[in-house]
């Protein structure tokens, strides 16, 4: 009796599972087809003018370049000098297909280069400030991080490190300046960083 009940239930389960799997396969196939169609369209978009884009106004003037002879600092400074002559763009919020649709497929390689330059700048400024802290030059580290903040660099570590330095200097009220800058940035970035900054301000 039990077998006669279980078997139909099992078969019904298999039928429902097979139907759901088929619907998932169809949906996935549609997603894949849509992706390749959008990519095909993107690759056919002609080159557009990109001279008007919001390039990062990076300058060496606000940085303590050449102030110390530490080898690690000099390496970071050399990287920064090279970046000062290049164009920088933060394109993290766009996919490769988005960029080709917006600006044309022929522009994609150069836009990727500009985006790489931006992220190299972000990591180099952070490493530069970190090394300044390591050699007990915290005032200069703060200057580097504050400059990065004026550029709205989207590296959470930059803002959190600066907040920690403010706390160590017994000036936690300055964390409000960081919060103001981050509050004007991308919503996802705000969600990541603001709670941690608020915690730093309270702890300070």
Distance between the amino and carboxyl termini: 72 Å
Element string (H = helix, E = strand): HHHHHHHH
Largest sheet: none
Helix fraction bin: 55-70%
| Beta-strand proportion | under 5%
Describe the structure.
The chain has about 200 residues and is mostly helical. The protein has helices at about 1-45, 70-85, 95-105, 110-135, 140-150, 155-170, 175-180, 185-204. The longest helix has about 40 residues, at about 1-45.
List the helices and strands and how they pair.
Blueprint: H1 2-43, H2 71-83, H3 96-103, H4 108-134, H5 138-150, H6 156-168, H7 175-182, H8 187-203
Helix pairs in contact: 1-3, 2-4, 4-5, 5-6, 6-8, 7-8
Annotation keywords:
single chain, 204 residues, mainly alpha, 8 helices, extended
Summarize the structure.
The chain has 204 residues and is mostly helical. It has helices at residues 2-43, 71-83, 96-103, 108-134, 138-150, 156-168, 175-182, 187-203.
């Amino acid at each position: 009796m039990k077998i006669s009940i279980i078997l139909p239930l099992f078969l019904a389960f298999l039928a429902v599972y097979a139907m759901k799997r088929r619907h998932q396969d169809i949906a996935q196939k549609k997603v894949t087809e849509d992706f390749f169609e959008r990519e095909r369209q993107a690759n056919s978009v002609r080159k557009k003018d990109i001279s008007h884009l919001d390039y990062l106004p990076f300058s060496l003037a606000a940085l303590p370049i050449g102030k110390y002879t530490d080898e690690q600092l000099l390496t970071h400074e050399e990287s920064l000098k090279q970046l000062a002559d290049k164009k920088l763009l933060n394109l993290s919020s766009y996919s490769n297909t988005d960029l080709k649709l917006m600006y044309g497929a022929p522009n994609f390689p150069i836009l990727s280069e500009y985006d790489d330059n931006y992220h190299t700048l972000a990591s180099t400024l952070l490493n530069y400030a970190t090394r300044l802290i390591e050699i007990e030059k915290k005032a200069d580290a703060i200057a580097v991080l504050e400059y990065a903040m004026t550029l709205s660099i989207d590296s959470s570590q930059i803002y959190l490190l600066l907040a920690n330095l403010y706390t160590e200097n017994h000036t936690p009220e300055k964390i409000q300046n960081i919060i103001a800058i981050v509050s004007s940035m991308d919503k996802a970035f705000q969600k990541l960083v603001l709670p941690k900054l608020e915690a730093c301000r309270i702890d300070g």
